[in-house]
């Protein structure tokens, strides 16, 4: 049985799309397509060819994998369908299959990756955390998740990012694999030294 506060909070956010319909396209873009911005950011960080950035991307990837595993286990323990499948008059703005919506996969992804970014790069990390929060709210706005799905996804993502941030430096294998990759990369795409340097 869905708790009333969860339904009330869902209504409060989802009904904003009815009150401010001009914001709906922005909510749809954030809910559906910000995923590609995050993927592009990970590629850009990787190809800066900074070891710090690359370790950050590796940690973010591992945090996401761990968070997804925890999320799937959580979904076995507790499940419910999307709000648009259970409640009347939902402002549903995107197509979505009816399945278990607990916890939110998008929220798991954004919080595991964005918190990993924040832990390493605090300055722009706050922007990534803000983006993760915007994506989380947008998934309620477009009608595909309850607040409880979002809260669980965020918590799982945060815990996974913190755990991997603590664990990764202790795994020498990761550093060795990264060193091997960078050695091979240097052969294929050598970094040219500036001429005239002493």
From TrEMBL:
InterPro entries: PAP2/HPO, PAP2/HPO_sf, UPP_Pase
GO MF term list: undecaprenyl-diphosphatase activity
Transmembrane segments: 26-47, 126-144, 150-168
Taxonomic superkingdom: Bacteria
Pfam families reported for this sequence: PAP2 (PF01569)
Gene3D superfamilies per the UniProt record, alphabetical: Phosphatidic acid phosphatase type 2/haloperoxidase
Boundaries of every Phosphatidic acid phosphatase type 2/haloperoxidase domain copy: 60-165
Key words, A-Z: Membrane, Transmembrane, Transmembrane helix
Gene Ontology CC terms: plasma membrane
Full protein name: Undecaprenyl-diphosphatase
Protein encoded by which gene: bcrC_3
């Amino acid at each position: 049985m869905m708790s009333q506060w969860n339904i009330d909070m869902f209504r409060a956010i989802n009904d904003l799309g009815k009150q401010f319909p001009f914001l709906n396209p922005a909510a749809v873009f954030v809910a559906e397509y910000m995923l590609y911005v995050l993927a592009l950011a990970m590629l850009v960080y990787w190809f800066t060819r900074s070891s710090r950035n690359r370790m950050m991307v590796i940690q973010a990837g591992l945090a996401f994998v761990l968070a997804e595993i925890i999320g799937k286990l959580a979904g076995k323990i507790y499940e419910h369908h999307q709000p648009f499948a259970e409640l009347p008059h939902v402002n549903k703005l995107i197509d979505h299959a009816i399945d278990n919506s607990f916890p939110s996969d998008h929220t798991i992804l954004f919080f595991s990756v964005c918190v990993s970014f924040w832990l390493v790069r605090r300055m722009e990390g706050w922007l990534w955390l803000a983006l993760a929060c915007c994506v989380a709210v947008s998934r309620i706005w477009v009608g595909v998740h309850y607040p409880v799905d979002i809260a669980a996804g965020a918590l799982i993502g945060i815990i996974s990012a913190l755990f991997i941030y603590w664990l990764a430096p202790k795994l020498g294998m990761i550093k060795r694999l990264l060193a091997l990759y960078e050695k091979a990369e240097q052969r294929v795409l050598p970094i040219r030294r500036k001429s005239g340097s002493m």
